[in-house]
Write a structure and sequence with these properties.
By secondary structure, the chain is α+β, with helices and mostly antiparallel strands. Among the domains are: 229-316 and 532-558, Periplasmic binding protein-like II (D-Maltodextrin-Binding Protein, domain 2, 3-Layer(aba) Sandwich), CATH 3.40.190.10; 320-529, Dipeptide-binding Protein, domain 3. The protein is built from 15 helices and 21 strands. The strands form five sheets. Strands 8-9-10-1-11-19-12 form a seven-stranded mixed β-sheet, sandwiched between helices. α8 (336-344) packs antiparallel against α10 and α13 packs antiparallel against α14. The longest helix has 18 residues, at 504-521.
């Protein structure tokens, strides 16, 4: 998002009207958007809530002796929403998770200081007011009267504790960089009073506010964390609209309504998240009534479910990237010409058109085309078997088989098989497939000493830093995001400069150059930007998809 050039004093104060307190989550479709607290744009104009169609007027019955048709059931409070996940939750301790499913469930329990709304604007959540001075001092005023699930009031001490815990090497958080890049030490996080947090940065840091929306930086209660110790993942305590109830690994996670929630209280009694790795089983559970909400509809079922009209089908463009990564530190993939050869040998358009039925967007860069820093002029690796053969001939490849690891979810096995066939046919490189369970897969690609290639995706954010820095800066090798173990000193320098630059046009120039180098180096083969989709039972009302798949369920009802 644009930011003003650095000045001697920049103070932007964004306050909420009382009604905005009800709109903390993006989910209810009729909610109005909050004003943004981003210091770089000033307050955004509130978006008018979409009008609801008026109920059809009741017509007199043609025959008086026949009773009038019963009025449709009105959405009511209560009930259970049953959600199918592609994979199981890994942890509910925010600083420790790196996967979308843990974040998805955790965000019902925990909350951050800021959030990204439906328009991809950063807006306050647990924060009420923000002042930025000299581009380096962030003074955050907290909402008053917010209670944790254990009854403790949210205070500035909890914010400092939460951030210090993320930054502490002993925590071993794979997301510690989200704070340590900008803040020298926890001592730079001050608590002048009960509801004020003052954070002094090392230097101006363009994406800092966007980083404060990350699920890993959720605000935790100090007493609850210390009481639970190493078992906090099974005893999470947040400020969110739902409270943790039970987690039975491999079977379900249950959360229940928080009746003391500070904002718009949830209407559902309970949500049950069920991990169902097999796509056919997930769809069968939806059609048989075993679940109410199927996230990410399998492409094989999308057209059929939409045509049937039995379910409420939603689909929107999403901010993400699906990719094939090469371990650039493990031979023979240390050879850039081999990586480029494999990339030219794969027909990404054919994969998107056939396996994904043309849904989503064929990727050029790691950034979505809608991102303000997207570079449309990078090497796109369009399908070119002749060029692939030339490059593999110029490489040092010695005919050894290569492995692709992937999670056994939805279409990924088909994608892996298609890549295997195309690469074998076009350049004679034999590919061995390694399907894995989600948790084991993440562990396998974390160290860098085992994997060669893998298929994965990444959900971005409102700022390009949220994709380019974790995935391509060399300090983030492994669990932090850069599992291709890619290193280019020029790219490292460009990404760091983009962070410490405030003006958007200057940041954009740096990101454009970085993308050009990255794509020529080919640590990845970008495949597609997928859509977010949902199939819901007709009885589920008030649900709306979010571009980052950060779904909350406050406004959801069961009819």
């Amino acid at each position: 998002m644009p930011r003003l050039a650095s000045r001697s004093l920049l103070a932007i104060v964004l306050c909420f009207v009382l009604a905005a307190c009800q709109q903390q989550q993006p989910a209810p479709p009729a909610s109005s958007a909050q004003p943004t607290a981003a210091a770089n744009t000033g307050a955004a104009k509130p978006t008018a809530a979409p009008e609801k169609p008026a109920a059809a007027a009741e017509k007199p019955t043609a025959a008086p002796e026949k009773p009038a048709a019963a009025a449709p059931a009105k959405p009511a409070a209560g009930g259970e929403l049953r959600v199918a996940l592609e994979s199981d939750v890994v942890t509910l301790d925010p600083p420790l998770f790196t996967d979308v499913f843990s974040n998805y469930v955790s965000s019902q329990i925990h909350e951050t200081l800021f959030q990204v709304d439906y328009d991809m604007k950063v807006v306050p959540l647990l924060a009420e007011k923000l002042e930025i001075t000299n581009d380096t001092v962030y003074t955050i005023t907290l909402r008053k009267g917010v209670k944790f699930h254990n009854g403790e009031e949210l205070t500035s001490d909890d914010v400092k504790f939460s951030f210090a815990r993320v930054m502490d090497p002993a925590t071993k958080s794979p997301r510690s960089w989200q704070l340590t890049d900008a803040i020298e030490s926890p001592d730079k996080i001050e608590t002048p009073d009960k509801y004020t947090v003052k954070i002094t940065l090392k230097a101006p840091f363009g994406p800092f506010q966007d980083r404060l929306t990350a699920g890993a930086l959720a605000i935790l209660n100090k007493k609850a964390v210390e009481a639970a110790g190493a078992d906090y993942a099974h005893k999470p305590v947040g400020t969110g609209p739902f409270k943790y109830s039970e987690w039975k690994t491999g079977e379900y996670v249950k959360v229940v309504r928080n009746d003391d929630y500070w904002g718009e209280k949830a209407k559902l009694d309970q949500i049950t998240f069920r991990p169902i790795p097999d796509a056919n089983t997930r769809t069968a559970e939806l059609e048989s009534g075993g679940i109410d909400y199927l996230m990410q509809i399998p492409s094989d079922d999308f057209a059929r479910l939409k045509k049937a009209g039995t379910f409420n089908i939603q689909e929107i463009d999403a901010i993400n990237i699906s990719y094939l990564a090469y371990n650039t530190q493990k031979a023979p993939l240390t050879d850039v010409k081999l990586r480029q050869a494999i990339s030219y040998a794969i027909d990404k358009k054919e994969i998107n058109d056939t396996i994904y039925a043309g849904r989503g967007t064929v990727a050029i860069s790691p950034l979505n085309p809608t991102n303000w820093a997207f570079n449309p002029n990078v090497e796109p690796y369009k399908y070119d078997p002749a060029k692939a053969k030339q490059l593999v001939g110029e490489s040092g490849y010695k005919d050894e088989p290569l492995e692709i690891a992937f999670n056994q979810a939805t279409e990924l096995p088909q994608v892996a098989e298609r890549i295997q066939a195309q690469v074998q046919e076009n350049i004679g490189v034999k590919i061995v497939l390694k399907p894995m369970e989600w948790g084991a897969f993440l562990q396998y690609i974390r160290g860098g000493d085992q994997h060669q290639m893998f298929l994965l995706g990444w959900n971005g954010g409102a700022d390009p830093d949220g994709i380019l820095f974790p995935l391509f800066h060399s300090k983030n090798w492994g669990a932090a995001g850069n599992r291709a173990f890619y290193k280019n000193e020029k790219v490292d320098d460009l990404l760091l400069k983009a962070q410490t630059t405030v003006k958007q046009d200057d940041r954009k120039a740096l990101y454009l150059e970085a993308q050009d180098i990255i794509m020529k180096d080919a640590p990845w083969f970008t495949i597609r930007h997928q859509t977010n989709s949902a199939a819901l039972a007709k009885k589920v009302q008030g649900f709306k998809l979010h571009p980052l798949n950060r779904q909350l369920f406050n406004g959801v009802t069961i009819q």
